[in-house]
Amino acid sequence: MARSIPHFRREFAGLAIAAWLGAGAALAQDGDLEPPVLDTGEIDGDLAGRPARTPTVRYAPGALEAYERKLRAYEQAVAAEAAAKKLRDDKFRRESAIYERKMAAYRAAKRKYDADRAEYEAELARRR
Fold it and tell me: N or C: fewer beta carbons within 10 Å in the chain?
């Protein structure tokens, strides 16, 4: 992994902010989220005898498509990181299993050595 974790966090934070802004923009275009109220300095419509002018939200052409591309790239990065983590976890489990087998063999050899030594020392003590 060429990138460090702090770099990934910075990138994640940037993408999260972009996603939040883009989601608000997409919802505003669909009419699900009211656009921010702009202070135009005019009198509200009911006081002036006409309906209040509702500010329209305009976005640069392709803003939603650019957001969707960034979101797909982010999802791919998350999926790649998850796959890399799975590989690291699998490698760790394999190496842990190998280590545990070696330690079990070492402990068995140590027990056998201690038993043989105790038997040898008992034999020496009996001969004296």
Answer: C
